[in-house]
Structure formats: C-alpha cells, structure tokens
Model the fold of this input.
Amino acid sequence: MTIDIPTFIDAAGGEVAGKVRLQKLMYLVDQLGIVTGFSFNYHHYGPYSEELAERVEDDVVFGRVSVEQKRRADGVPFVIYRPRHHNQDDPKSLLRTPGVRAALSAMQRRSATVLELAATIHWLAFVEEVDNWQAELVRRKGVKTEHGRAEAALGLLVEMQIAPA
Amino acid sequence: MTVWRLLNTPEVQRLRRIKQLGVSEFVYPSATHSRFAHSVGVFQNARRLVDLIGREIELGRVAGNFDLERARISVLAALLHDIGHGPFSHAFEEARKAIAERRGATRVIRKHEAFTADMIKSSTSQIGSILADAKVDPAEVADLVEAETPVDMYHAVISSSFDADRLDYVQRDRYMTGVGTGAIDLEWLMDNVRVAEIDVSPAGDNGTDAAYRHSFCLLYKAREAAEDFLLARYRLYTNVYFHKTTRGFEQLVSALFQLIAESVEAGKVLAGLIADHPLVRFFSTDGETIENYKALDDFVVWGAIHDIGISGTGAAQDIAQRLLERRRLLCLDVQLAFSQEPELQRRLKHRLDETFKNELHKTVFRNTAKLSLYGEIGGDDSRAQKRLMIQLPNNRLKEITDFSERAIVQTSNERPFERYYFLSESDYTRAESAVEDIRGHS
Done:
C-alpha cells in the first residue's frame, strides 16, 4: 500500500513543480517516519523511486492528477502536478499532523536543487553510510553545492530533525 | 605515445570482444561493431571538441586560458570511458540488478562508469602507470568519467548535449545497422558549436536557484541541424536500441545470467559450466571484483551459452538453445495492443502484472523503458547537461524545443515502451485473452 498521491500534493500546498521536487519531497517525508510505501534507489538527481514515478503516471492517466507543462525563462520545460479534485483525506492520515505539514511547507520553500542535496546528504549518510558524506556530496553534486546550497540543505535536515551527526 | 600504450592495454583490448550493440545483430546482421572501434571514434571526436574549445578561447568568445592539462585529461577519459562495460552491457546490468534485489542488497549495483573509474585507478592495471608516466593523475581521469554533475567545458567533451560519445554512436550505430533514418550534418554542427554558461539545475524552480557551468551549445543558424541531431538519436532508440526483438533476446541473456547466479547461490554449478568459469566466479559471494569483471566479455559468455546449450539441463539449456538458434520469445507489446489509448495500456499492464506475478522473471519477462527527446529516462528527469541549448544572436540561450517554428516537441509525458515476453504459447494466449477482455469492457 502506497501513500495517495493527490492527498500528498494537497498536503504539500496544492501543487508540486517538477519531477525532481516530487521525488525528493516523498523521499524526505519517508524519512520522517511516514510510511509512504515507496522504495528508493540512487539515481542522477539523488534518491528516486521508480514505483512512485509509475504511480504518478497512473494517477495522471486515470485523471486523478493534472499535469501542466511550463517552461522556465531559458525555455527548459518542466511540469506542475496538481490533484484533480480536492481530496477529503483520511482524518487519521499522518500527512495531516502539524509536524508533517510544517516539514512539507519548509521543503516547498526550498529550491529543487536544495531538496536534491538534502535527500542526497541523507542517502549518503544513512543508506550508503559514507563516513565523509560532505566530501562525497561535493564530488557527486559539484556546482550545485556552491553558493550556500549545501549548507541550506543541511539546515533543512536539521529543521526536520533528520540530519546526520 | 601515451594513447598507443593505452590502446595496447588488456583493459582496452578487451573492448574488441564486447559488441557495441549486444544482441542487436539478431535484428541488424551487420551491427557487429565493437566497443573498441567506438572508443577510438570517441577519442577522435574528443580531440576535435578540445580543439574547438581552444578555438573559442583564442577568439575571445570564452574567458580565460586554454587548460592543456584538463584538455589532455578529457581526451584520455574519452578513450577510456567504456572500459568498464560488461558483456552484453544492458542485459548484464539488468541481470545484476535483479540478482542484487533477490539477494537483499540495499544499494544500487555498481554501474559501468564505476567499473571504468576503478579500472583506471587500479594498481593492478597498466593504465594507471601509463597515465602516471604521462604526468596525468589517473584519479582525475576517473573523476571526469564518473562525474554526475557538469564540472567544466572539458567535462562537456565527455558528457553534454554534444559530447564525443554520442557524436560517435549516432553515426556509427546508424551506419553499422543500416537504418535509413537519422542522418546528421556533423561538419555544420561542428562549425556552429559554441561554449556558454548553462543552468544545470533541475527545471522546476524557474531559474530562481540557477547553477551555471560552461558547456556546449549551438548557434541559432544550426538550429535545424541540431533538431536533426536530436531526432537522429531518438530514432536510434525507437528503431534499434528499443527494438522489440532485440529487447526480447536481452531478456533471454539476462535470464541465463540469473540462472547461473541462482545455481551459484545454491552452492552448485550450472550443468555445462566448469566450476571455475568466470561467470561462476563473478556471481559468487563477494565475486564482483575488478579482476573477475575484466575476465568477462561477449566471447566468454557465448562460450558459456554454447556449453550450456549442449551439456546443460532444464530451463538454462532451453534458453541457451534459443539463443544459439535465434528462436524468439513471443511478444505482447502494450503500446501496440492499445495504440493511442494510454488508459487501456495502463490497465493491460496492471492486468498482466497480476496475471503473471508467479511467472515473471521465470517464464514471462517484462521489459519497460521510457524515452524522451533527450534519450532514455532512467530517473527523475533527463540529465540537465544533456539539454540542447541554442544561442541566439543576442547571446541568450534557449532550449531547442522552445521555438515557435520548431519541428520537434518536448512533451511532459515520456513515451513508454512496455513489452511482455513469453516462453510458452499457453501464457501468450492468456495474455492475448487479457487484451480481448479489456477491449471488450472499454
């Protein structure tokens, strides 16, 4: 059983911009102890769940999630996901708890690159158990770690209380 | 001299025994070219691209000085970029992934780039000492091969929208398969390549947290040639790399690898193989060493297929004989069954997964892939450095599909390729019944 995607998007503020953002939000929520039901592997943009991608595609095809095609200023395309209908989610859903809502809100205020870095830090430290995850993060993510983004990513994990020591 | 010495190392010579397109020769009989030939082609393209960087710096279109050290590293990385490929590259990685999952591994398998990096740095290979003699740090060459995020314009030679690798395979694979589509105007493209700072961040933030690195782009006047270039690659995927018969034979090869691994796990050796066979060594516990990996190539695997086909037993022998005699699996193509009907395609996929949940990976095989204009999607999104940017006369950059007069379109939905393959006629008939049933209820 996996988490309901339209409900998840609702809890994240009603829309999620970009596939990378959706994947990293789900991974980080999973680390909060919410059982999303998705398993993750490491890919180019960090932790990624093929099952989640499949589930989203199902929801798009069966009309539960809408996709809007957008472009950023340099023309690079991306998508925005929204639930088709406002979801009356299960009142007992952990997504409704203030802590999770606050975490989702905090994540949504960060850029996709920062989320990519935060998820990758967590993955390196806790899944791959890389001792010097800081160096490995720079090795894998290079320019993305510059301009305070790596610090911002770690700060997010601290705020969510899932940062490595 | 360094290049000649590297070409003559066992690691590079091994590439003569690994076919660039694996089992594609079952569909395109002349597609028998090796990764060795491809690597030499990539090296030659890298030299041209490095010269091009020098030209851009000399003309003052890129700030700074030409970095000869970095240029040498990128050219050598181009030559060595494929040495970590295993036999039947795609099928081998698929099988290793399935084996790792069954064995409960929590981490993803090491991909060929990681093996390449390890081979370059290995103290037991000659490559490290040859590079050291040339005053090149092997670790820097390995890092360039493995880098997942754009580093600089010299890295763009190895990984970008216009890198040395794709410039070779787009032409070589087309020529060797004989497919008619996908010609490119290489000289016009080369004339119009420029270096610019490109935003390599994920797209969803609308550029609010941009991360810039130097990479290749193309001038506006080469936009149509650039479209042809992207389309050529796309057509190679649809016509060659994702060909349903090729993918079917890959399933058979992958299944055979998995049967060998299963027998090793059970403490046995598959009938037809010797106890010390390189595949047995590789699939043993902790057997994924560089030395064991280097002992594998297409020739070794074909030898095993031959021996299992003659002296093997059961499912392994059946699969080996199918490969030897080119006996295809029965195939149900989900997109073909319900063309232009994505909802019915999804229903069929779920129905087949449920119907054959006990047979999957044993007698029924599923092969899925997704394709965008920028190639196969193996994760969240296309790699940022693979986006093809066009430089306008005012020096601004624009993604190639964002022109009103475009001939190619970037859609949000990647094109799926979902096929189910069957060893038995009866299972295939059950699958066809599922198609009829869904059609009847639609």
